[in-house]
Amino acid sequence: MIQFHNVSKEYPRSGLALSEATFRLRKGEFAFLTGPSGAGKSTILRLAYFEERPTLGEVRVSGVSSAAISRSEVARLRRKLGIVFQDFRLLDDRTAEANVAFALEVIGTKRDQIAPRVNRAMTQVGLASKMNAFPRELSGGEQQRVAIARALVNDPFVLIADEPTGNLDERATRSVFQLLRDINASGTAVLMATHDLELVRRADYRTIELDRGRIVFDSAETRPALGELT
Amino acid sequence: MRIAFRDALFAVRMAPLLSVLSVMTIGFSLFAFALFGLVAINIKRALERVEERVEIRAFVADGTPIEDILSAAQEIGRYGEVQSAKLVSQQQALERARRELGEFSDVFEEGVLPASIDVRMKPGSRDPRSVGAVASRVRTIAFVEDVRYGEEWITQLHRLRNIAGVTGIALGLAFAIVAVLIIGATIRMTVLARSKEISIMRLVGATDGFIRRPFLIEGFAKGIVGGMLALSLTWITAATLEHYLHFQALFFDDRLVGFGLAGGALIGFLGSAFAVGRHLRRI
To answer: Mind telling me how many Å the CA of B15 is from chain A's nearest CA?
Structure first.
């Protein structure tokens, strides 16, 4: 599904961000990417949705290789990925409904199919009653739910989440995380970068730990006691 | 395409001030260019009017049979550079001199002025070289005693025309480049104002073509409206000058008006294509 093979990423100014990363996210799997700031978590995610290309090695997503993918193929592949960020990235001048519908409109979904699919996604994230609210009228947790609805509306095979709870209070964090678990339980793989070790400890999911651009631990290879995670 | 039109309209509605600003920028940049164009076509027209007076006058020896002169005039009229060649008899020359010199009309007596063949040149052949060449050929006719065409005046006129032409092209290019740069910067501002929307579009899988479309429509429409604004301002300026300075200025004909509007639309379209293309390459 998502496969990293000896992937290194070096930036001209800041140097090596990722070094020889190799891992594989399987169908329907939930995996955390953890590690301190600058460890390379966001770099892995950006490589996974082809926002960046590796300096060395190969990233394969749904069988498509980073070595051969064109710009238009990236656009088409992203229609099968759901991407969520810490800062939500909603359009402030559109309602929650319009923000979710936007993801369908830009890929040319037929008009009569948009409303039912938006309804379904908004119901799935528990915001069916807030369809007409603008982002500024919603709490942080609700805004993140709208962003997740937008990511889900195209029925992605994987949800890529970069610190999705980073801007939320504890209650909203629990609620958004539960939503991600539900999404995973329904068959969508989740690759989530997070700082929140408490969250990682509570859930018994695969954990890939990074430090200074290297994968230093992958629970899929060795399964340590949860207390050993730092 | 429906979505592209809707998005373009939405963008204008959500940022009306920026839209008005970009239309005004396009309008005033094209206005400066159009004003220059108006001055240029009026100078060109004035020079053409002066050039129409370029004439070769071949004086004929007294006593030459009229048939011979007529035959020579017909022959000259067949030269490629010549528009017309006509006989001016002694009597007609006298009448013309009296008409032109007014209060000195009694100075001339009958038979004083010689008959002549007056040769007018075709447009495009009124330069010193062509006029001189025709004058030399006419001079070889046996009964032609003298040929005059104001050599120095034609040379000066030609030089003035060349200077006006080169200056016009250089200034026109400078105005056009400045207009394109200003318009390009304005359109870039509208693209940057929507950079968040563009990045989200890319994240959810929109192709570059889809992202470009509303910007191109918006740029095209703003270009046309800006072009109309520029033409209106130019027309008002020309009408005001005519009213207060009392001179009949030449305005753009329908073809040039169409060209101006199409130019505005093209600048808007290409400016948008360039600005959004550059933005897409960077993100």
So the answer is: 11
